[in-house]
Amino acid sequence: MRAAIIDEPGKLRVGEAPDPTPGAADVVIKVGACGICGTDLHIADGEFPPAPFPLVPGHEFAGEVVEIGSDVRTGIAVGDRVAVDPSLFCGYCTPCRTGRGNLCANWGATGDTVNGAFAEYVAVPAVNAYRLPDSLSMGQGALVEPLSCAVHGLDVFGAQIGERILVVGAGTMGLLLTQLLAGSGARVSVVDRNAARLPLATTFGAEHVATSVAELDAAPFDASVDVTGAPKAIEDAFDALRRGGRLQIFGVAADTARISLSPFRIYNDEIRIVGSMAVLDSFEPALRLLESGRVSSEGLISHTLPLEEFPEAVGMVRAGTGVKIQIAP
Ligand SMILES: [Zn+2]
Ligand SMILES: [Zn+2]
């Protein structure tokens, strides 16, 4: 089959890879759509330590079931359209056994630690496949994973009615978080250096939008979420908090990145800082939100490119082109 392959950090190509064969509990999916995410860029740059090389990336995907392992008992059938939770939790470490599988000591994910869906076919555990309603396209199916990360972010972060919340970054994740926060009754302000992204943030419920925190007169905020992973943006998000505020670090930074925050302020103002890592029991809720229309995908999928153009598509993501760029193998 054809697949996008990262041979080593910085070396990316589209070439031939062996067809996946399903393990006893797996299904093989013919990929319909797979989104490119900031994490894929970190993997390509060697900044995401769990990723081995060579690797076929791709963890935001939907497709059609074409083969079923001998021991699959989920009632899934060949021909089913599914979205796939990429999470691979071991099930026996302490985090897994205390309800925090996303922090699994042996954490893995399809497309991050084993071959993923920037390919014609991918094998996944059958229990990770969720049937896609007829009303949702493959492209929308590939948005369930990023939305499920945003749902987990809210699970961790909480949002109170009427709170003033700053979202830094208006890419796909920032726009999904904006919808969830506004839908939860928070008053959302959104900042992105790329002004072209701001009208969508307004459409999705942001009250104030700007290209920098300094331009917003809504500060200080009760809470802020950084969706960029950029150290300067995280520091701005921290500085914009009121006393007693909280900061969520949602965006993926390079593993070597460092930030500079005032420990006195964290102490004296009782600032809480909390992370949010991937998906935890949030895939089904995300699927329901998209199916019901409570979260809109209108305008989010800006480009759909063929697999052979994967390197160009990655270049577009790096350049900040559009919103969500997907590959349709
Ligand atoms: Zn992702
Ligand atoms: Zn585990």
Automatic annotation (TrEMBL):
GO molecular function terms listed in the Swiss-Prot or TrEMBL record: L-threonine 3-dehydrogenase activity; zinc ion binding
Keywords: Metal-binding, Oxidoreductase, Zinc
Electron transport is among the record's keywords: no
Metal-binding as UniProt keyword: yes
The protein's required cofactors: Zn(2+)
Top-level EC class as recorded in UniProt: oxidoreductase
EC numbers on record: 1.1.1.103
Matches recorded under InterPro entries: ADH-like_C, ADH-like_N, ADH_Zn_CS, ER, GroES-like_sf, NAD(P)-bd_dom_sf, Zn_alcohol_dh
Pfam families: ADH_N, ADH_zinc_N
PANTHER family with a match to the protein in the record: ALCOHOL DEHYDROGENASE-RELATED (PTHR43401:SF5), L-THREONINE 3-DEHYDROGENASE (PTHR43401)
Family membership: Belongs to the zinc-containing alcohol dehydrogenase family.
Name of protein: L-threonine 3-dehydrogenase
Source organism per UniProt: Actinoalloteichus hoggarensis
Organism lineage: Bacteria, Bacillati, Actinomycetota, Actinomycetes, Pseudonocardiales
